[in-house]
Amino acid sequence: MASYYTLLADVVLILHFSVVLFVVGGLVLIIAGNVFRWGWVNALWFRLAHISAIAAVVAQSWLGVVCPLTTLEIWLRSRAGIDTYDTGFIEHWLQKILFYDAPSWVFILVYTLFAVAVVAAWWYFPPANSVKNLQEKIMIINVKTNKRSEMVDITRKIENALMETGITAGLVHIYSMHTTAAITINENADPDVRSDISKTLDQLIPWENSYQHMEGNSAAHLKTTLVGTSEFVPIENGKLILGTWQAVFFCEFDGPRQRKVKLTFMKS
Predict the structure, then answer these.
(1) Under the phi-then-psi rule, with left for phi > 0, alpha for psi from -120 to 50, and beta for the rest, what region is 216?
(2) Which of the ends of the chain has fewer CB neighbours closer than 10 A, N or C?
(3) Are the CB atoms for 79 and 5 separated by under 8 Å?
(4) Where are the domains of the chain?
(5) pTM, entire model
(6) Which pLDDT tens digit goes with each residue over 54-76?
(7) Which pLDDT value is given to residue 42?
(8) Which of the following CATH numbers is that of domain 136-267: 3.50.50.60, 2.60.120.200, 2.60.120.260, 2.60.120.460?
(9) Residue 83: what pLDDT?
């Protein structure tokens, strides 16, 4: 019977260690995941579980309540007749990781500071909305242009928006909400490509050409019609599926202006 209680105590200790690993490692994963764009780290269930775990730890420390897992483990070891953790490998090493000889206020301070870091991560890297039943998510991104005609790479803005949705597979529809600005996908490695595209469009559709439109920007309207106002990009594993040299560009033809692009994320 003693060995049975000892085994149960070891199981509780491993569970306790797993909770600590989840709380500490979870924050590391949240930060790293947002840096490296792992969409799953912002899943609502994961973030809620993480912040709830650290909230419970802080509440226990401030109220002076012993962790239920610790209480259960001590009871099991007492039933097994074990007074120390020197009799087993698991007990010895996991206890060294979990427990330290220090005043209680040190633990309270450490737990509280860690909780502040978790809350800061929640604010800085907000969790995605629950997408269990979500089929579509619409977002608007702002684009500031600085020239009459230019191609602005908006790929990173779309990636950031995708991360907020939590969608890992599907499509995104990228739509210019303007009659003098377009959307296209092309090379982002060599800026001369963008320059060549702009120059060629200017040659095909010059700014002055006896147009009748009174506003004087008919060339911009024609370029927009030629290039198109939208593109679709597939989503897999929480990332945009673009070629090695591809990027999504907002094509300004009548700037400089403050523009808006509508993103419709569709979950598959």
Answers:
(1) left
(2) N
(3) yes
(4) 2-124, 136-267
(5) 0.57
(6) 999 899 889 888 788 888 887 88
(7) 85
(8) 2.60.120.460
(9) 61
